[in-house]
Amino acid sequence: MSPALNVHTADDSAERLEALAAVSQRLLDRCRAAGATQAEVSCSEDAGLSVNVRMGEVETVESTRDRGIGVTVYFGKRRGTASTADLREESLAATVDQACAIARFTEDDEASGLADAELMARPGPDGRFPEFDAWHPWALDADAAVDLALACEAGGRDADPRIENSDGASVSTTRGLSVYANSHGFIGAERSSHHSIGCALIAGAGDRMQREGWYSVALAADDLESPIAIGRRAAERTLARLDPRPVPTGSYPVLFQAEVARSLIGHLLGAVSGGALYRRASFLLDSVGTQLFPEWFGIFERPFLERGFQSSAYDAEGVATREAPLVEGGVLQRYVLGSYSARKLGLQTTGNAGGVHNLEIPANAGGLDELLRGMDRGLLVTGLMGQGVNAVTGDYSRGASGFWVEGGEIRHAVDGITIAGNLKEMFATIEAVGSDIDPRSHVRSGSILLGRMTVAGDD
């Protein structure tokens, strides 16, 4: 049994990927010998370190090491899945036997099976797939991580005497290896890293207390904001939340700041995903080719971005990914499908088993200040609460916090309000997308200005 991946040792990731690939091949051989007509195997190893501090004291230090092996077999149209974390040969054999036993007792499902063989991604001349600069392990020990977290929190607490309390600061680093293989002969190996530093602070007291924070995430530690800068940004955001005032109920322009604007794109993705569509639980049934957004609006999938959070040459089924518009000219161009949902809908996979691979929403406006001036009077939303979105009808109602804008300038903080509309109408009334892209997500969007929404205030 090979040792678990360790964030504090020399980089042996290439050798470990080869070992996982060999395990995958042995499992596929066992599935074939057991009579499976098709099979697929996924193997992963992850390791990480995370620390949390609060009010200058260490609260938690956690080191994690995980392994997972999943085996799926198909006997015709019957499917069985089993998993293990044990690499001993007897455990691998038992996992295959269990998957086969499950498959023999399931009903036929005409949509089941591997993705079509001709759609598999092909490696380069060296037999490897590109990595897109996603592997940057951080040799961070617990003491150093604690020092970074303490510096982050201190940077925020020391910024202003009105910062009287803290919800703490955190530092985390993870790195992972994964192999996917199937009986079409496909085998793909990937490695990636992910790091973050964050801080949340509290200002005021009693019912006037306000909490805000800031964080930075990156695939490479060198791309993170400095801990002190993160703490100071958290302090600025917290202080700006003090002394919120009510706003009158009415219909106003609403500007979603970049970090919450991507939630609108998330609602679109949920509605055009294969699972929602074949279950007929989407407000965008039969909408491909429909004008949903203004003519200038677009959303483009970019799976090959260097240091992209979701860059990959293949999806979770080994299907080759490709650059393609999701929305172009305001028109929905396609759904987001894996092979199973595609078959249920009588369509072909779009290479999105496991999700989308980096979305870009081009800007048609400048930064946040320009958008505020263009809005003139309305609501800037910086935080959302609740899950008040009806996936079937598109009706939207969520708690919100942010700032009231008059004359193109922020006047005061607001909270305890509700914003409401219908997603179809909201998409159609987008007036601008800013250039202030939030880089902390695979959905790369600036702030989004909507022409009008219902805002329920304190009155």
From TrEMBL:
Domain (Metalloprotease TldD/E C-terminal) ranges: 249-457
Domain spans labelled Metalloprotease TldD/E central: 136-242
Keyword Lipid biosynthesis: no
GO molecular function: metallopeptidase activity
A Gene Ontology term for the protein's cellular component: cytosol
Start and end residues of each Metalloprotease TldD/E N-terminal domain: 39-103
InterPro entries, per database record: Metalloprtase-TldD/E_C, Metalloprtase-TldD/E_cen_dom, Metalloprtase-TldD/E_N, PmbA, TldD/PmbA_N, TldD/PmbA_sf
Pfam families for the chain: PmbA_TldD_1st (PF01523), PmbA_TldD_2nd (PF19290), PmbA_TldD_3rd (PF19289)
A GO biological process held by the record: proteolysis
The keyword Hydrolase is assigned to this record: yes
Keywords, sorted A to Z: Hydrolase, Metalloprotease, Protease
Family recorded in the similarity comment: Belongs to the peptidase U62 family.
Cross-referenced PANTHER family: METALLOPROTEASE PMBA (PTHR43421:SF1)
NCBIfam families xrefs: PRK11040.1
Protein name: Metalloprotease PmbA
The organism of origin for this protein: Luteimonas chenhongjianii
